[in-house]
What we know:
Strand content: 15-25%
Distance between the termini: 45 Å
Number of domains: 3
Low-confidence stretches: 1-35
CATH topology of the largest domain: Rossmann fold
Mean pLDDT: 85
Number of strands: 24
Shape: globular
Bound molecules: calcium ion
CATH class of the largest domain: Alpha Beta
Radius of gyration: 26 Å
Strand order of the largest sheet: 6-7-5-10-12-14-15
Amino acid sequence: MSSRTPMHLAVAVAAVTALLPTVPAVAADRPPGAATTSSFLVGAQRPSTARSTDPTRLTDDLAAVGRATGARLTVDRVLATGDLLVHADRPLPRTTTEAVLSRLRARADVAWATPAARLAPDQTPDDPSFAAQWDLTDPVGGVYAEPAWDSGADGSGVTVAVLDTGVTHHRDLAGALLPGYDFVSSAADARDGDGRDPDATDPGDWAEAGDCGPAFRASSWHGTHVAGTIAATRDNATGIAGLAPGARIQPVRVLARCGGSIADLVDAIVWASGGTVPGVPDDPTPARVLNLSLGAPGACDPATQAAIDGALARGVSVVVSAGNAGADAANFTPASCAGVITVAASTTMGERAGYSNRGTSVALAAPGGDHEHGVLSTVDTGRTTPEGDGYAEYAGTSMAAPHVAAAAALLLGQRPDLAPAELTGLLTGTARPPVSPADCRCGAGVLDVDLALRAATGHPGDTTRVLVQVGVRPGDPEIEQPGVHLAGTLDRLGTGLPDWDPGAYPLRRVDTTGPYRTVLTVPAGTELEYKYTLGDWDHVEQAYTDSDAGCVDVDNRRLTAGPAGTTQVVADLTGSFRGVWPCRR
Ligand SMILES: [Ca+2]
Ligand SMILES: [Ca+2]
């Protein structure tokens, strides 16, 4: 396991006094929204009464609904439940879908109506290292990739430009790569023998001792790592899975030996977003999302802001790493530029990593890992020039940003009409909130791709998340040793475990003084009762009413899970165990 800090642009940037206004808009040539519905489930009134849904009568009325909405609707069949399957003659855009649903729901004989969900196999990818990708799967620190994939989203049709060191021809990326461009103008640093050219292959960015520091620096393969997080091939029995495995990567080289030039970055932003750069042929496959896992100290300069404004005006989202200085991102560029999505790094516990920049410039956080658990992705094994395919764990905000870029691709694949500001709102509006916003200073919290997709497609689903945190007094040895578990209405938490099984649901912590935490996905609106335990019946806060005399009588904790598609934070704070342990049943 190795951890490296990401590359930074080795350029001093002059302070600026004014930023240009950001004008997000959808370019006129973008296709309309592709999220469509071609079938509906229509719920019959229960119990069956004289007002039950009659397929014949409904068929007649569907014709009227169709005339009003421009769709031709027919009853396909009656399901075993008595509910009806209704088909449209063609995929209906979202506005028509909503019109059809409101007409159906207005009927006295219809209990409910919903678009018929498209099912996908609920399987785990066969990529052998998928189990190590906590950033995609961990309920506490991950981004909930699998439920997002189960909805059918994979980023197909969306191009993400990775402005970085270029990429190697890694076998786990082979199907994802589009032609790119090498914008590194310094032939001395480029290591490919020339300045700008159409080949974005990464020849290695190693530096000899004295080049840009006293020590030798091995090649980082930074762009290959970032690209793998976004779109490494899933289900190819090889390595890892990218978060948006159907997306295409356009590699754009701006970093090389000792970093890169902000002037090259400005041109690359313009080019990859579909603008024109003198002396360079226009990009035949402009991106909808740019990933910039790079930065330099200083404020956002007017040239960089102008390039970003141009991208936004062409409907292109710009995702930027917050930086790794453990400081306010407002003092770094392009993290502080207007209109970008600035991403802090979070850990396996869903907390901001200590090295991550923070502050009001940050839109949200995503897994960047730390020295214990980095983000696993594609690299080359060469110390200088490329030698062969490999995988490595890196930590940094550079690793966090591509999760958000991939999330943007997943949303755009379902909703190509989304303008940059809408996309930002969907990603931040569904993030897992920090338990302590004042400590995290990480914007809206940790990326949740599943909830973002549900919000983007207007299907909030029937589950919600509950982030449970219990703080324990530092220095209480009895609490520190065995670990804290949750006991309660466990079968209703979807665990398959019996109710009130102490020790069945471990709460996670990363050190002996920090809080314990878990995230449960439960039916929306569920009433939960719970207590904390040390893992057995002797150490339940208070299990049942027949507990032995001498135990401190503490009522069960209760909560009502929130509405569908949201995350509720429940923090039971320090000191809550005093006088409870042990309590023999
Ligand atoms: Ca070159
Ligand atoms: Ca793979």
